[in-house]
Amino acid sequence: MKRQEYGIRTTLNVPYEEAIPRVTEALKKEGFGVLTEINVKETIKKKLDKEFPKYIILGACNPQLAYQALTNETEIGLLLPCNVIVYEREGKTVVSAQDPEAALSVVGNPAVAPVAKEARERLARVIQSLS
Questions:
Q1: What share of the chain is helix, strand, coil (3-state, %, to 5)?
Q2: Which stretches make up the DUF302 domain (predicted)?
Q3: What is the pLDDT of residue 5?
């Protein structure tokens, strides 16, 4: 597991198509549902008629954590849900989750920090479980 400044990442030795349901199931085990799926490859082809590698953005949400964050900071909805990306690179599949502590630190509301910390811990477990 590798942590970037704003994300938590791992590389899998499974095909992209197999990784997506694995990621979705791992998120579910940590209380996250996938609210949105954006197939970037298909969207770029459709809108720009350009080729792009396999790449999907999963908008993951843990309802309890989202509720806590929203009741402490109404505008935090601009930073939700937690995005998880799955993409191909050099024949491998990469999975990267947004680091909620990094993303929500811009809010500057101390009441949000514990929610961000818990969300980060859960997403880190998701990424670790895939390795």
A1: 50, 30, 20
A2: 38-100
A3: 80
The set of residues, in sequence order, having a beta carbon less than 8 Å from that of 81 and lying 6+ positions away, is 35, 36, 59, 60, 61, 66
Count of domains for the chain: 1
CA contacts within 13 A on the Cβ side of 70: 11
pLDDT, tens digit, 9 for 90 and up, residues 97-125: 999 999 999 999 999 999 999 999 999 99
For residue 48, what are the domain limits?
2-130
Q: Could you tell me if 121 and 30 are in contact, meaning their C-beta atoms sit under 8 angstroms apart?
A: no
- Non-local (6+) Cβ contacts of 44 within 8 A are 50, 51, 52
- Cβ neighbours around 29 below 10 Å, total: 11
The closest of 3, 16, 15, 8 to 84, measured between CA atoms, is 8
Q: Please list, in sequence order, all residues whose beta carbon lies within 8 angstroms of the beta carbon of residue 77, skipping any fewer than 6 positions away.
A: 70
Contact 127, 32 (CB under 8 A): no
Q: What is the CATH number of the domain that holds 71?
A: 3.30.310.70
